[in-house]
Predict the structure of protein-tyrosine-phosphatase.
Amino acid sequence: MASFFQKLFGSGNDAAPTATLEALGTDMHSHVLPGLDDGAETVEQSVELLRALQKLGYRKLIMTPHVMGDFYRNTPEGICGALESLRSAAIQAGVTEVALECAAEYYLDEWFSQRLERQDPLLTFGGAQRYILVETSYINEPLNFAETMFNLQAAGYRPVLAHPERYTYLYGRFADLEKIRQDGILLQLNLNSLTGYYSSGAKKVAEKLIDAGLVDLVGTDAHHIKHTDSIQTKVLTSAYLQKLLALPLLNATL
Protein backbone atom coordinates (compact mmCIF):
# COMPACT_ATOMS: atom_id res chain seq x y z
CA MET A 1 0.00 0.00 0.00
CA ALA A 2 2.82 2.40 0.80
CA SER A 3 4.43 1.87 -2.59
CA PHE A 4 1.06 2.44 -4.26
CA PHE A 5 0.69 5.89 -2.73
CA GLN A 6 4.34 6.70 -3.33
CA LYS A 7 3.71 6.05 -7.00
CA LEU A 8 0.74 8.39 -6.91
CA PHE A 9 2.01 11.14 -4.67
CA GLY A 10 5.78 10.90 -4.63
CA SER A 11 8.03 10.05 -1.72
CA GLY A 12 6.83 12.87 0.50
CA ASN A 13 10.21 14.62 0.30
CA ASP A 14 9.57 16.39 -2.98
CA ALA A 15 9.21 20.15 -3.02
CA ALA A 16 5.96 19.81 -5.00
CA PRO A 17 3.52 16.90 -5.38
CA THR A 18 4.19 14.64 -8.37
CA ALA A 19 0.82 12.90 -8.37
CA THR A 20 -0.75 11.45 -11.48
CA LEU A 21 -3.84 9.38 -12.07
CA GLU A 22 -1.91 6.53 -13.65
CA ALA A 23 -3.38 4.00 -11.21
CA LEU A 24 -6.87 4.68 -12.59
CA GLY A 25 -5.75 3.82 -16.10
CA THR A 26 -9.01 4.81 -17.78
CA ASP A 27 -11.11 7.95 -17.80
CA MET A 28 -14.66 6.82 -18.58
CA HIS A 29 -16.43 10.19 -18.71
CA SER A 30 -15.40 13.14 -20.86
CA HIS A 31 -16.59 15.39 -23.65
CA VAL A 32 -13.47 15.37 -25.78
CA LEU A 33 -14.97 14.30 -29.12
CA PRO A 34 -15.19 17.45 -31.27
CA GLY A 35 -18.34 19.23 -32.33
CA LEU A 36 -20.93 16.98 -30.71
CA ASP A 37 -21.98 18.80 -27.55
CA ASP A 38 -20.85 21.51 -25.12
CA GLY A 39 -17.35 20.03 -24.91
CA ALA A 40 -14.54 20.36 -27.44
CA GLU A 41 -15.65 22.35 -30.47
CA THR A 42 -12.77 21.58 -32.82
CA VAL A 43 -10.34 18.76 -33.48
CA GLU A 44 -7.55 21.05 -32.31
CA GLN A 45 -9.26 21.51 -28.93
CA SER A 46 -9.77 17.75 -28.72
CA VAL A 47 -6.11 17.05 -29.32
CA GLU A 48 -5.16 19.62 -26.67
CA LEU A 49 -7.40 17.78 -24.20
CA LEU A 50 -5.87 14.44 -25.20
CA ARG A 51 -2.41 15.77 -24.37
CA ALA A 52 -3.63 17.11 -21.00
CA LEU A 53 -5.33 13.83 -20.07
CA GLN A 54 -2.24 11.87 -21.06
CA LYS A 55 -0.16 14.15 -18.83
CA LEU A 56 -2.51 13.33 -15.94
CA GLY A 57 -1.56 9.68 -16.35
CA TYR A 58 -4.44 8.23 -18.31
CA ARG A 59 -3.72 5.53 -20.86
CA LYS A 60 -7.27 5.04 -22.10
CA LEU A 61 -10.18 7.41 -22.66
CA ILE A 62 -13.82 6.41 -23.07
CA MET A 63 -15.34 9.63 -24.38
CA THR A 64 -19.03 10.19 -23.64
CA PRO A 65 -20.79 13.00 -25.53
CA HIS A 66 -24.19 14.12 -24.32
CA VAL A 67 -27.29 12.55 -25.86
CA MET A 68 -30.32 14.73 -25.13
CA GLY A 69 -33.59 14.98 -27.03
CA ASP A 70 -33.84 18.78 -26.80
CA PHE A 71 -30.20 19.68 -27.48
CA TYR A 72 -27.83 16.95 -28.60
CA ARG A 73 -29.51 14.27 -30.67
CA ASN A 74 -26.29 12.39 -31.19
CA THR A 75 -26.49 8.92 -32.70
CA PRO A 76 -24.15 5.92 -32.33
CA GLU A 77 -23.14 6.39 -35.97
CA GLY A 78 -22.28 10.07 -35.50
CA ILE A 79 -20.39 9.48 -32.27
CA CYS A 80 -18.39 6.59 -33.72
CA GLY A 81 -17.62 8.69 -36.79
CA ALA A 82 -16.25 11.48 -34.60
CA LEU A 83 -14.15 8.90 -32.76
CA GLU A 84 -12.52 7.70 -35.98
CA SER A 85 -11.76 11.28 -37.02
CA LEU A 86 -10.15 12.04 -33.67
CA ARG A 87 -8.10 8.83 -33.78
CA SER A 88 -6.66 9.93 -37.12
CA ALA A 89 -5.97 13.45 -35.82
CA ALA A 90 -4.30 12.07 -32.70
CA ILE A 91 -1.93 9.93 -34.78
CA GLN A 92 -1.04 12.90 -36.97
CA ALA A 93 -0.40 14.99 -33.83
CA GLY A 94 1.80 12.29 -32.32
CA VAL A 95 -0.58 11.55 -29.43
CA THR A 96 -0.38 7.78 -29.62
CA GLU A 97 0.00 6.58 -26.04
CA VAL A 98 -3.69 6.94 -25.15
CA ALA A 99 -6.25 4.44 -26.44
CA LEU A 100 -9.45 6.13 -27.59
CA GLU A 101 -12.94 4.67 -27.30
CA CYS A 102 -16.43 6.10 -27.05
CA ALA A 103 -19.76 5.63 -25.33
CA ALA A 104 -22.32 8.30 -24.43
CA GLU A 105 -23.87 10.18 -21.53
CA TYR A 106 -27.61 9.70 -21.87
CA TYR A 107 -29.97 12.26 -20.38
CA LEU A 108 -33.04 10.62 -18.84
CA ASP A 109 -35.73 12.40 -20.83
CA GLU A 110 -38.78 11.23 -22.79
CA TRP A 111 -36.67 10.73 -25.89
CA PHE A 112 -34.42 8.29 -24.05
CA SER A 113 -37.40 6.35 -22.71
CA GLN A 114 -38.73 6.03 -26.24
CA ARG A 115 -35.39 4.75 -27.51
CA LEU A 116 -35.24 2.22 -24.71
CA GLU A 117 -38.79 1.06 -25.42
CA ARG A 118 -37.98 0.66 -29.14
CA GLN A 119 -34.81 -1.23 -28.21
CA ASP A 120 -32.69 1.21 -30.22
CA PRO A 121 -28.94 0.54 -30.03
CA LEU A 122 -27.31 2.37 -27.12
CA LEU A 123 -23.60 3.01 -26.64
CA THR A 124 -22.07 1.23 -23.65
CA PHE A 125 -18.58 0.62 -22.27
CA GLY A 126 -16.83 -2.14 -20.36
CA GLY A 127 -17.39 -4.80 -23.01
CA ALA A 128 -19.68 -7.58 -21.82
CA GLN A 129 -20.48 -5.60 -18.66
CA ARG A 130 -22.55 -3.21 -20.80
CA TYR A 131 -22.15 -0.21 -18.52
CA ILE A 132 -24.32 2.70 -19.66
CA LEU A 133 -23.72 6.24 -18.39
CA VAL A 134 -26.86 8.25 -17.54
CA GLU A 135 -27.59 11.65 -16.07
CA THR A 136 -30.60 13.64 -14.91
CA SER A 137 -31.49 17.27 -14.42
CA TYR A 138 -29.34 18.88 -11.74
CA ILE A 139 -32.38 20.53 -10.15
CA ASN A 140 -35.52 18.53 -10.91
CA GLU A 141 -35.92 14.93 -9.81
CA PRO A 142 -37.04 12.68 -12.69
CA LEU A 143 -40.35 11.05 -11.92
CA ASN A 144 -39.51 7.92 -13.90
CA PHE A 145 -36.02 7.30 -12.53
CA ALA A 146 -36.73 3.99 -10.78
CA GLU A 147 -38.76 2.69 -13.70
CA THR A 148 -36.07 3.61 -16.23
CA MET A 149 -33.32 2.00 -14.15
CA PHE A 150 -35.40 -1.18 -13.84
CA ASN A 151 -36.02 -1.25 -17.60
CA LEU A 152 -32.32 -0.75 -18.34
CA GLN A 153 -31.36 -3.59 -16.05
CA ALA A 154 -34.07 -5.83 -17.49
CA ALA A 155 -32.63 -5.14 -20.94
CA GLY A 156 -29.19 -6.32 -19.80
CA TYR A 157 -27.54 -2.95 -19.15
CA ARG A 158 -25.67 -1.90 -16.00
CA PRO A 159 -26.62 1.73 -15.32
CA VAL A 160 -23.95 4.15 -14.11
CA LEU A 161 -25.28 7.40 -12.63
CA ALA A 162 -22.99 10.24 -13.62
CA HIS A 163 -21.85 12.69 -10.91
CA PRO A 164 -24.55 12.02 -8.27
CA GLU A 165 -22.86 14.58 -6.05
CA ARG A 166 -24.04 17.36 -8.35
CA TYR A 167 -27.81 16.75 -8.21
CA THR A 168 -29.15 19.40 -5.88
CA TYR A 169 -32.50 17.62 -5.51
CA LEU A 170 -30.63 14.86 -3.66
CA TYR A 171 -28.91 17.20 -1.20
CA GLY A 172 -29.93 16.24 2.32
CA ARG A 173 -31.19 12.87 1.04
CA PHE A 174 -28.11 10.69 1.37
CA ALA A 175 -30.24 7.65 2.20
CA ASP A 176 -31.72 7.93 -1.29
CA LEU A 177 -28.23 7.73 -2.80
CA GLU A 178 -27.54 4.65 -0.71
CA LYS A 179 -30.82 3.13 -1.95
CA ILE A 180 -29.93 3.87 -5.58
CA ARG A 181 -26.68 1.97 -5.23
CA GLN A 182 -28.35 -0.86 -3.33
CA ASP A 183 -30.66 -1.20 -6.33
CA GLY A 184 -27.67 -1.99 -8.53
CA ILE A 185 -26.96 1.43 -10.04
CA LEU A 186 -23.25 2.25 -10.01
CA LEU A 187 -22.13 5.73 -8.94
CA GLN A 188 -19.54 7.79 -10.82
CA LEU A 189 -17.81 10.72 -9.14
CA ASN A 190 -16.30 13.74 -10.90
CA LEU A 191 -12.71 14.44 -9.86
CA ASN A 192 -13.22 18.20 -9.78
CA SER A 193 -15.95 17.77 -7.17
CA LEU A 194 -13.20 17.04 -4.64
CA THR A 195 -12.16 20.69 -4.56
CA GLY A 196 -15.54 22.42 -4.74
CA TYR A 197 -15.14 23.28 -8.42
CA TYR A 198 -18.88 22.93 -9.04
CA SER A 199 -20.15 23.96 -5.60
CA SER A 200 -19.51 23.46 -1.92
CA GLY A 201 -22.58 21.25 -1.82
CA ALA A 202 -21.18 18.93 -4.46
CA LYS A 203 -17.91 18.75 -2.54
CA LYS A 204 -19.67 17.75 0.68
CA VAL A 205 -21.68 15.01 -1.02
CA ALA A 206 -18.57 13.75 -2.84
CA GLU A 207 -16.69 13.46 0.45
CA LYS A 208 -19.62 11.67 2.08
CA LEU A 209 -19.84 9.20 -0.82
CA ILE A 210 -16.12 8.48 -0.51
CA ASP A 211 -16.30 8.07 3.26
CA ALA A 212 -19.17 5.61 2.83
CA GLY A 213 -17.34 3.68 0.10
CA LEU A 214 -20.14 4.22 -2.41
CA VAL A 215 -18.07 5.35 -5.41
CA ASP A 216 -17.64 2.79 -8.21
CA LEU A 217 -16.11 4.85 -11.01
CA VAL A 218 -14.29 8.16 -11.36
CA GLY A 219 -14.37 10.49 -14.34
CA THR A 220 -12.87 13.81 -15.34
CA ASP A 221 -16.05 14.99 -17.10
CA ALA A 222 -13.62 17.17 -19.02
CA HIS A 223 -15.30 19.59 -21.42
CA HIS A 224 -12.53 22.17 -21.72
CA ILE A 225 -8.87 22.58 -20.86
CA LYS A 226 -9.82 24.51 -17.70
CA HIS A 227 -11.24 21.25 -16.34
CA THR A 228 -8.00 19.35 -16.81
CA ASP A 229 -6.02 22.33 -15.51
CA SER A 230 -8.09 22.28 -12.33
CA ILE A 231 -7.43 18.57 -11.87
CA GLN A 232 -3.70 19.09 -12.39
CA THR A 233 -3.35 22.05 -10.05
CA LYS A 234 -5.94 21.34 -7.35
CA VAL A 235 -7.34 17.80 -7.39
CA LEU A 236 -3.96 16.06 -7.39
CA THR A 237 -3.13 17.77 -4.09
CA SER A 238 -6.55 17.38 -2.47
CA ALA A 239 -6.82 15.45 0.77
CA TYR A 240 -9.69 13.26 -0.40
CA LEU A 241 -7.97 12.00 -3.54
CA GLN A 242 -5.99 9.43 -1.54
CA LYS A 243 -9.19 8.18 0.10
CA LEU A 244 -10.90 7.98 -3.28
CA LEU A 245 -8.12 6.06 -4.97
CA ALA A 246 -8.01 3.59 -2.08
CA LEU A 247 -11.55 2.43 -2.96
CA PRO A 248 -12.07 -0.65 -5.22
CA LEU A 249 -12.79 1.49 -8.27
CA LEU A 250 -13.70 -0.14 -11.57
CA ASN A 251 -11.68 2.22 -13.81
CA ALA A 252 -8.65 -0.06 -13.97
CA THR A 253 -10.85 -2.95 -15.20
CA LEU A 254 -11.94 -1.03 -18.28
About this structure: The longest helix spans residues 76-92.
